[in-house]
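User: I'm curious whether this sequence folds into something compact or stays loose and floppy. Could you predict its structure so I can see for myself?
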Amino acid sequence: MARCKHCSKGGLFQKVDKEGLCGSCAPTVRPDIDKHSNVIYESMGVFERAQGFDAKLAAIDTLLASARHLQQYEAKGIATCNPAPTPVLAEYGGFRDELLASRRG
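Assistant: Here's the prediction. I'll summarize afterward.
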């Protein structure tokens, strides 16, 4: 018996795709994941190239917001980005803390 990883609907006649999403969820979930994954990847590049404090902080904050958004899918066992949102949050959260500490001291 198949069960959608996002909406949890299941049953004898429920069909899900290879990612575990039903026909109702897949058209909205997959584009949302793709959008936020792209924001993460783009923000990583912006952060690496940014010269000023404000630009670096803005890139990290954008990245972290998208990673937090993707965590809802990760928690349901739905594939998101690579690396997954939780390690991205840990790593870039640390970068953010270091950036703020360097500004203070």
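Summary: Residues 26-49 form the longest helix (24 residues). The chain has a mean pLDDT of 95.
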